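Lecture 7, part 2: worked example. A protein chain together with 5-O-phosphono-beta-D-ribofuranosylamine.
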Amino acid sequence: MIKIAVLVSGSGSNLQALIDANLSGQIVGVISNKPEAYALERAKKAGIQTAVIEHKQYPNREAFDDVMHQQLLDWDVDLVVLAGFMRILSAKFVKAWEGKMLNIHPSLLPNYKGMHTHQRVLNTGDVLHGCTVHYVTAELDAGQALAQGVLKVNLHDDVNSLASRVHVLEHVIYPQVVEWICTGTVQYTKQGVLYRGQAMQKPVQFCKL
Ligand code: GRF
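Predicted complex, written out as structure tokens:
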């Protein structure tokens, strides 16, 4: 059974969706860089062990990442799931977990990498918006996309309504992608990502139009 660690910094609603999904893999631990993250409460309620590794206590990014890396090794983790983890990871850490680390980003990548995605979508006047689950690579928000949740931006949408509508989609697609990995439906190879045994050309889209 695949052993999963979830890295969080905040509320952890995506962590909750993963817990509630009864995955074929096992969430063996949750790491937070913030001691006050509500995600830690969610983990404890579900009987999942937690580790708080505060980035502020380390002299630089590499030192912080080394401690996280060791914790993941101690838990014998196969898959690292970033779920609202608000730290940029060092190239060394990303390399060590290449093909074994996922992120969810609140936009239809490659559009709107980085922060404030909902506001930027509204500013541009896009008709479609959503979220993307992707493998993590050294370049921010640029790894192979595995799934997208797509919604239609309504005339009355503002940042808050968009954020909550996108969140609903996140809670559908993230557990789905993690389950695909647990069951071998998605496989990472050096030659590229396989979906149902075939080269994956583009992310699978889930639409809520
Ligand atoms: C989500 O919007 C996700 O896209 C982003 O961080 C947020 C995490 O929310 N990466 P939560 O902590 O899972 O509720």
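Residues 105-209 form a domain with the Rossmann fold fold (CATH 3.40.50.170). Residues 10-14, 83-84, 104-106, 131, 167, 170 surround 5-O-phosphono-beta-D-ribofuranosylamine (CB under 6 Å). Keep this in mind for problem set question 3.
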